[in-house]
Write a structure and sequence with these properties.
- It is a multi-pass membrane protein.
- InterPro entries: Acyl-CoA_DS, FA_desaturase_dom, FADS-1_CS.
- Belongs to the fatty acid desaturase type 1 family.
- The protein is built from 15 helices and two strands.
- It starts with 12 loop residues before the first helix and ends in a 5-residue tail after the last helix.
- It is an all-alpha fold.
- It has one domain.
- α3 (69-95) packs across α5 (121-133), α3 (69-95) packs parallel to α11 (213-236) and α10 (189-209) packs across α11.
- Strands 1-2 form a two-stranded antiparallel ribbon.
- It has helices at residues 13-25, 44-60, 69-95, 103-116, 121-133, 148-152, 162-169, 174-177, 180-187, 189-209, 213-236, 257-262, 269-274, 290-300, 312-322, and strands at residues 100-101, 304-305.
Length: 327
């Protein structure tokens, strides 16, 4: 759920973020019914940058036949690292506290999260908590009731609705601020993004196996980044609109197998919004859920602990009470 990269160098974090976002909210209305605000201020810089990124990604496709196979494998490996920085890191660890991670794992996930370039851990996690608490209202940063385009990418093209900011201030984020890894990444976010999102993916193929800098940059940085953004956005858009609702038919999020494939386990979205504390975000555990595989492996290595799970009786009772009757 990326947004623009802002200057993260000021402390305290809460007050700095609140002041910045208050100015970004502009003069938007604050109707809380989930409809579109009366007035939208377009952030033209984001429109231009995202357009250029996707044009560059489209151009990158013509370079695929010209690149070395190792470069394509490296680009996919960087995609997986990028995804883990969001799914296992900002989402399941920091947003939901669904498991605990020791310092080396938190450092790794923070570096991978910078490779993702989807806002720093603090802002990503805070906005995601708002998304869960006020889902499909004006306080939801990517409210799916405003349509597929808005929930996918359009929310980045307009200033945040004032309700997002006001409701965000009411959430307890002291756990995020207490983590030195989160504070460090936020303070040095711009530097970490330049290094992890662009320099490392570009320089490794050039240095290790002689790939051209041109191919490395467009394939391992630009194309990989654009694909990872859209995969994440599909969780906000497609997984809130298309699929079944076996756990709670009264909420918008759905079970979407295609999103699950792309987002390495994040498409079991009706389950996730019903049991947001579950570290696996799915009833089915290891059933194509690479993020769950990763967290389980980290537990086996002693780097993660205290995985939270919804119990089978709890799941079955909820299905019977609020599910749509689908499998």
């Amino acid at each position: 759920m990326p947004g623009r990269a802002a200057d993260r160098g000021q402390v305290p974090l809460c007050s700095a973020a609140a002041a910045e976002e208050e100015s970004r909210a502009g003069a938007e209305g604050s109707a809380g019914g989930g409809g579109a605000p009366e007035r939208q201020t377009i952030v033209w810089r984001n429109v231009v940058l995202m357009s250029l990124l996707h044009l560059a990604a489209a151009y990158s496709l013509v370079l695929i036949p010209k690149a070395q196979p190792l470069t394509l494998l490296w680009a996919y490996f960087c995609f997986l690292l990028t995804a883990l920085g969001v799914t296992a890191g900002a989402h399941r660890l920091w947003s939901h506290r669904s498991y605990k991670a020791k310092l080396p794992l938190r450092i790794f996930l923070a570096a991978a999260n910078s490779m993702a370039f989807q806002n720093d851990i603090f802002e990503w996690s805070r906005d995601h908590r708002v998304h869960h608490k006020y889902s499909e209202t004006d306080a939801d940063p990517h409210n799916a009731r405003r349509g597929f385009f808005f929930s996918h990418v359009g929310w980045l093209f307009v200033r945040k609705h004032r309700d997002v900011i006001e409701k965000g201030r009411t959430l307890d984020v002291t756990d995020l601020l207490a983590d030195p890894v989160v504070r460090f990444q936020r303070k040095y976010y711009k530097i970490s993004v330049v290094l992890m999102c662009f320099m490392v993916p570009t320089l490794v193929p050039w240095y290790l196996w002689g790939e051209s800098l041109w191919n490395s940059y467009f394939l391992a940085s630009i194309l990989r980044y654009a694909i990872s953004l859209n995969v994440t956005w599909l969780v906000n858009s497609a997984a809130h609109m298309y699929g079944n609702r076996p756990y709670d038919k009264h909420i918008s999020p759905r079970q979407n197998p295609l999103v699950t494939l792309g987002a390495i386990g994040e498409g079991f979205h009706n389950y996730h919004h019903t049991f947001p504390f579950d570290y696996s975000t799915s009833e089915f555990g290891l059933n194509f859920n690479p993020t769950t595989w990763f967290i389980d492996a980290m537990c086996w290595l002693g780097l993660a602990t205290d995985r939270k799970r919804a119990t089978k009786p709890m799941i079955e009772a909820r299905k019977a009470r609020t599910g749509d009757g689908s499998a």
